[in-house]
Amino acid sequence: MPDDALGQAMLDRMRGCVRAQCVYRDGDDVGDAHIYEHYLVPQERWPDEKWEFVGSLRTPMLDVGCGAGQHALAVQERGDVVAFDVSPNAVRTARERGVETVFVGDMFERSLCTSQFETVLANGTQTGLVSTLEHLADLLVSLDSCTTSKGELVVDSYDPTRIVPDEFFGYRPDPRPGLARRTFHVEYGGLRGPDLEFLLLSPDRLRTAAGAAGLDVEHVHYPTTKSSYYRARIR
C-alpha cells in the first residue's frame, strides 16, 4: 500500500522536524516538491494576487483536497468552511494549523457531500486525477451537486498549449490537441506515495467536459501572460 508521503512531509515541515527532502520522482527524474512554497507560506507573505483570489471565494465553502489548509484558514475568518483531504497527515496538518472543520475524505466518493455551498474549491489540479474527459464530466457533476443554485466550482489545471515540455516535470504528450498528462509519485524520508497521473487540459477542453456535465466555464484566469497554470470558475 502506498505511503502518505506528501502529507507526512507537510506535517513534519509544519512541526519543524523535517527528516529529508520531499521530492517528486518520475523514473530517473527527481524534482523538489516545494512543500513550504506550495502549502505552508504564512498569510503575511502572500502576494496581492493570492489575497485577491481568496477574497473572491464565497462562503459557505467546501475545500476539496485542502492540503495543509491554507485556503480554508483564510476563508474561515469570514464564513463557514468545510475542508477535506484524502491524506490523513494533510488533515492533521490543517487541523493543527487551525482549520476548524476538516476530515479525511475522497472527492470521488459521491456520498461525501451532505450540505450546499456557495463555493466548491478544488485547488491543486486534483480534478485532473481522472482518466478521461468523460470521467472529468462525471466528477464535475458530483462536485456541482454540492453547490447552491447560485454556487460555483473553482478548479485549476495546466494548459498544454502553453507548456514547454522539457521544462514541465512528469510531462507526457497526448496526440489530441489541448490535452496532455503528468505522471510522478512523491518520496519523503523512506516513504513512497502512490503513482499519480494527472490529465492536463486547455480551457477549451475543460469547456467541453463542463458542457457534458451541463455546466459552463464562466471565467478563466492565468496569473501571467506566459503561465501555463490557470484557474477556472464553473457554474
Automatic annotation (TrEMBL):
GO annotation (BP), single: methylation
UniProt key word S-adenosyl-L-methionine: yes
Entry annotated with the keyword DNA-binding: no
Alphabetized InterPro entries for the sequence: Methyltransf_25, SAM-dependent_MTases_sf
Pfam families: Methyltransf_25
Domain Methyltransferase: 62-127
Molecular functions per Gene Ontology: methyltransferase activity
Keywords for this protein: Methyltransferase, S-adenosyl-L-methionine, Transferase
Protein name from the UniProt record: Methyltransferase domain-containing protein
